[in-house]
Amino acid sequence: MQRDGRATLTWNTPSELSRNWTHAGFDRRHNFTLGFAYQLPWTNDGSGYSNIGSAIISDWQLNGVLAAFSGSPFTVTASGTSLNTPANQQVADLGGDFKVLGNIAPNGTWFDTTAFTQPTGVRFGNTARNQFYGPGGWAMDFSVFRVFPVGGSRRLELRLEAANVTNNKVYSNPQNSFTSGTFGQITGYRSTDYPERQGRLAVRFSF
Questions:
Q1: Domain extents for the chain?
Q2: Which among 71, 12, 19, 85 has a CA at the least distance from the CA of 190?
Q3: Which residues contact 152 (CB under 8 A, 6 or more apart)?
Q4: Per-residue pLDDT reduced to its tens digit, 61-98
């Protein structure tokens, strides 16, 4: 972990140092990116359009980028009051299997919260940092270009571009604190990295 440019540890207790060896917070096991560009076969060769139909269908280009990815890791934390060990993080106990339910708040929890309990006594919980993975997602950017030859090598290009053209939501990790009233719920999405659909109209002139 990094804080103010300095390396920090989740566990500083000598007997627990091995707990720090785990998945990075940005670990995504699967990433797929597909980019495409397709120039429609009808193109003006510079001699002008032969008819109205040719003027309508010529000089179009379709472009896009599709990204799909698995989820990022998170830790299930718990109250560390009984530990009295500053600069160390308490984690919850897992008493069964980690089961993904797939619900988005307010329709329920994303995982089965009944499998987790608060550790009792002076000890750390039996789960690890970044042991669990949240939801993955996908998004696609798409654009349409139209070229208008204006003589010689000069070209006027009209661009219609859309980020997240399907307006698909990429959800954040669920609430990971056992003591929270919304434990296990997904209440937001990654609006900074994958905002709602945004469109842009641009004009480019090349000569």
A1: 2-206
A2: 71
A3: 207
A4: 999 999 999 999 999 999 999 888 888 999 999 999 99
